[in-house]
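Table S2 (continued). Query chain:
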Amino acid sequence: MMKNKKLLFFVIIVLLALGGCSEKAQSKEEPKEEPKAPEFYKQTVTLLDKEYVLPVAYKDLEKDGWILVDNDDYELEAGKVIRNRYIRNGAYILDVSFFNPMKDSLPLKETYVATIGAENRTFGSDKASDIKINKGINFATPIETIIEALGDYTKEENAQFITYTFQHDKVSKTEIKLTVENKTIRWIIVESFRI
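Corresponding output:
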């Protein structure tokens, strides 16, 4: 009986020792990588060979020759956006949205441009913009190449345009509008409200 107890005690000690070994073996495994925080999409726009990251302070655009077309004494309330304003640089005109992320109302000239839209057409003295966006996309880029570069999209169609919307994250997107008639890019619109 005593032999059995000794044997049982010896088996328990061996099992405990082996259990400790397996724990050590597990701890020698390579540490698992922590998931990386998502990288937020950076909207870049090149206009007249100058690159900007959205949102861009209007003052930066203004010093490069982009002038607000009308009502530059407008006051924008805190946290608000105003769309469909136009800025011009010579023969080039852009449709923009102004954004005020501050806690107080500010003159429009002291806020940010969060959206830039360029139309591919010449009208009167206006010329189509030389806009280039993320990864060199411009009016001549085939839609298949844009899809490959920008990824997932939604597609809507009406009588005038086929619109591809690339929602990069909650606060930034790219829209490409093709004419239904000849499938050429008519509008490039980029937007980011990330401050």
